[in-house]
Each structure stands twice: as C-alpha cells, then as structure tokens.
Design a protein that fits this description.
The complex is a heterodimer of chains A (112) and B (115). With 112 residues, chain A is an all-beta fold. Helices cover 0% and strands 56% of the residues of chain A. Chain A is built from no helices and eleven strands. Chain A has strands at 3-7, 10-14, 19-26, 32-38, 44-50, 56-58, 64-68, 73-78, 87-94, 100-102, 106-111. In chain A, the strands form two sheets. In chain A, strands 2, 4, 5, 9, 10 and 11 form a six-stranded mixed sheet that branches. In chain A, strands 1-3-8-7-6 form a five-stranded antiparallel sheet, with no helix packed on it. In chain A, β7 and β8 form a beta hairpin. Chain A is globular, with a radius of gyration of 13 Å. In chain B, β7 and β8 form a beta hairpin. Chain B is globular, with a radius of gyration of 13 Å. Chain B contains no helices and eleven strands. Chain B is an all-beta fold and 115 residues long. The chains are: A mainly beta (112), B mainly beta (115). The A-B interface holds A 32, 34, 36, 41-46, 49, 51-52, 90, 94-100, 102, 104-105 and B 4, 31, 42-43, 45, 48, 50, 55-56, 91, 93, 95, 97, 99-109.
C-alpha cells in the first residue's frame, strides 16, 4: 500500500530564508510524486511533479523538489521565502492509475 | 479553459436536509474525484470515476452519501440526510488519465455548513 508522510504540520521561516518542507513516501512500485499548494479559501494547485527522468524537478514560483529513491523522499525547497509563499503544501503519491494519496499537509508561515 | 467548476461555493443547511453539490470537470478529462477536507481529518478521497464509472467509493463515509456522474461533463455528490459532522469543504478534481499520469486539477471547493 502507498502512503505519504509529511514531517511537520507547521513550518515557520523568515522572509528570504530557505524553505524546506519534508515528504517521505512508501510505495511498492516506482512512484509518481506531486507537490500541491493551497492558498486560503482556494482549491489545490499543482506546484511540481516527478514521473520519470531527472530527479530534480523544478516547479512554479521558484520551488523545486528532489526525488531520492534511496531515502524514499521528495522534499520541497525554495532558496528564498517570500511572504506570498504562505500557504498549505501537500505532498502526494500516485501509481499511474488515477488515484493520488495525499499527505496531511504542512502549513508554511513566512515572517517579515 | 475554465477549469473545474463547482457549485454552490457556499452552502448552509439544517440538519436533516438534503444537500447536492455539483461539479463540472475540465472538458476532455476522463477521471473525476470528490474529496472532503476538514481540520481534523485533512484531505480525504471520497470517490472517483473513470469514464463516468465509479472506480473506488471506499472513502464514502456512509450510505447517506451518494455520487453520480451521468455524463462526462457533470457530477453530483449528494448527502441525505445531512448532519453537522458533514460540515467541511468538498472539492472536486479532474484529470486526463493517460498511461502514467495522475495530475489532478482541483475546483475551488464548496464550503458546507450543517447546523
């Protein structure tokens, strides 16, 4: 069975600081991995995805994530946080069959 | 493209009443998903359809919940009778399921309050 664990339900960083949101997955088959962002009172938007190929994936708004098979991780990073990055971030794993398994989410706060 | 459309955006109803949530997926997409989001339980998949056929409804909480997809451009999620614990944000998402792709596009959600 597949599962996703996001470490830390809340992360707070200062504006300009590195953002690191952690995601570990469990999958018996090569996974497809996703990061979604949810701004207040909105639906989820896709930030980036990994399916095959290059393990470092770049997404929108300066975010990127690296697939590390040996660590079963897909952590999300951004070199310099902006106030507009404050949102909830969800990691998800899929199997190419249509169903995504979402993590519990991590709320990112950005302090001025 | 207009994206996934959900209606209503907000619904307030009294316990015992029937509630119907509506979703129009992105044109050309062949899979549709209904999720529920609460503070306590996070984002839960309720049911999903592929080519208008329900594939997995194991997330539907109980018989009070039902979902239909009569055609490729419309789906409903019905709760009858509604209860206060059904209060949540309900999201619809759609995707074009090709070999190896799971990317889902979410609607803005319906915020349901049952008093």
């Amino acid at each position: 069975a597949q599962s996703v664990t996001q470490l830390g339900s809340h992360v707070s960083v200062s504006e300009g600081a590195l953002v690191l949101l952690r995601c570990n997955y469990s999958s018996s088959v090569p996974p497809y991995l996703f990061w979604y962002v949810q701004y207040p009172n909105q639906g989820l938007q896709l930030l980036l995805k990994y399916t095959t190929g290059a393990t470092l994936v770049k997404g929108i708004n300066g975010f990127e994530a690296e697939f590390k098979k040996s660590e079963t991780s897909f952590h999300l990073t951004k070199p310099s946080a902006h106030m507009s990055d404050a949102a909830e971030y969800f990691c998800a794993v899929g199997r190419g069959q249509g169903n995504l398994i979402f993590g519990k989410g991590t709320k990112l706060s950005v302090k001025p | 493209d207009a994206g996934v459309i959900q209606s209503p955006r907000h619904e307030v109803t009294e316990m015992g009443q029937e509630v119907t949530l509506r979703c129009k997926p992105i044109s050309g997409h062949n899979s549709l998903f209904w999720y529920r989001q609460t503070m306590m339980r996070g984002l839960e998949l309720l049911i999903y359809f592929n080519n208008n056929v329900p594939i997995d409804d194991s997330g539907m909480p109980e018989d009070r919940f039902s979902a239909k997809m009569p055609n490729a451009s419309f789906s409903t999620l019905k709760i009858q009778p509604s209860e206060p614990r059904d209060s949540a944000v309900y999201f619809c998402a759609s995707s074009l399921l090709l070999a190896g792709w799971d990317e889902q596009y979410f609607g803005p959600g319906t915020r349901l309050t049952v008093t």
